[in-house]
């Protein structure tokens, strides 16, 4: 019985930014627990490589869709295309994100808009399309947003990233309250410092790398696959009474002074 709580057999999960890094790890992990997977990213080659990895290791069905979530006006139609080709989506993982760093006083507004567009606007529109789909067919659903330590803290030279991730924290709570009547649970995972291609330059910065390791009680960077447990929990019946929450997977970062 306990194992059935985490069983995702018969479910289909859509993971944005699922071609590499955290998104790929989450897609792989959800497939390991029985879900069929839909992954989106901008690069077809990246998607095909991810598809082959997941299918060969799990035997689950994988669909790929090349799409840039910054194209906001196309998201409703894109989501309907996904539904039409796959038969429906039970779990949405809003993972796609971007970042850049400039001093706040000199931050280019076009960069600000780009990051808010991908990290917050697209999350809302994808979630809205998912909700409309689940309302139409019934049966509830699960949304998992990917946050950050910057959901409630700040680092220098990251104003739009901080604003977008702070927005994810409260958007998650708002949608959870709004959509509980449709039996749609909306939660978030906030990773700490995780080893990915995106964070490679940070790890190569000796001063920053030393600071991250010393500041994290676990004494190391996290691995993408260490986020899978939280994702499977939030995607499954194990979390049926959990909504509006954010789980920090941060190696003890927020537990320490």
Structure write-up:
There is one protein chain. 44% of the residues lie in helices and 15% in strands. It has a 7-stranded parallel sheet, sandwiched between helices. Helix 1 packs across helix 8, helix 3 crosses helix 4 and helix 4 packs parallel to helix 5. The longest helix has 29 residues. The mean pLDDT is 96.
Looking at the structure, what is the overall shape? globular
Q: Give the N-to-C terminal Cα separation.
A: 40 Å
Contiguous runs where pLDDT drops below 50 for at least 5 residues:
none
Helix content: 40-55%
The class by helix and strand makeup works out as alpha/beta
CATH domain class name: Alpha Beta
- Spell out the helices and strands N to C: EHEHEHEHEHEHHHE
Name the beta content range. Answer: 5-15%
For the structure shown, list the relevant keywords:
single chain, 257 residues, alpha/beta, Rossmann fold, 7-stranded parallel beta sheet, 8 helices, 15% strand, globular
Outline of the structure:
It is built from eight helices and seven strands. The protein has helices at 21-32, 44-58, 75-86, 109-137, 159-179, 200-204, 206-215, 228-235; strands at residues 12-16, 36-41, 62-66, 91-94, 141-146, 184-191, 246-249.
Question: How is this fold's topology laid out?
Answer:
Blueprint: E1 12-16, H1 21-32, E2 36-41, H2 44-58, E3 62-66, H3 75-86, E4 91-94, H4 109-137, E5 141-146, H5 159-179, E6 184-191, H6 200-204, H7 206-215, H8 228-235, E7 246-249
Parallel strand pairs: 1-2, 1-4, 2-3, 4-5, 5-6, 6-7
């Amino acid at each position: 019985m306990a194992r059935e709580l985490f069983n995702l057999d018969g479910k289909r999960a859509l993971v944005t930014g699922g071609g590499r890094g955290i998104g790929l790890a989450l897609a792989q992990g959800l497939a390991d627990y029985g879900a069929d997977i839909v992954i989106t990213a901008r690069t077809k080659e990246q998607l095909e490589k991810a598809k082959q990895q997941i299918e060969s290791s799990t035997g689950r069905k994988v669909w790929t869709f090349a799409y840039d979530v910054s194209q906001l006006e196309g998201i409703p139609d894109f989501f309907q295309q996904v539904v039409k080709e796959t038969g429906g989506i039970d779990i949405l993982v809003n993972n796609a994100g971007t970042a850049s760093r400039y001093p706040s006083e000199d931050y280019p507004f076009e960069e600000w808009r780009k990051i808010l567009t991908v990290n917050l606007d697209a999350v809302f529109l994808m979630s809205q399309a998912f909700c409309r789909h689940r309302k139409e067919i019934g049966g509830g659903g699960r949304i998992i947003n990917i946050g950050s330590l910057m959901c409630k803290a700040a680092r220098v030279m990251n104003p739009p990233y901080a604003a977008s991730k702070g927005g994810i924290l409260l958007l998650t709570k708002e949608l959870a309250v709004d959509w509980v009547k449709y039996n749609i649970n909306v939660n978030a995972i906030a990773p700490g410092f995780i080893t990915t291609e995106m964070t490679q330059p940070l790890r190569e910065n000796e001063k920053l790398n030393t600071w991250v390791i010393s500041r994290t009680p676990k004494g190391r960077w996290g691995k993408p696959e260490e986020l899978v447990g939280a994702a499977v929990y939030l995607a499954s019946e194990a979390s049926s009474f959990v909504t509006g929450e954010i789980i920090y997977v941060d190696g003890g970062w927020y537990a320490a002074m």
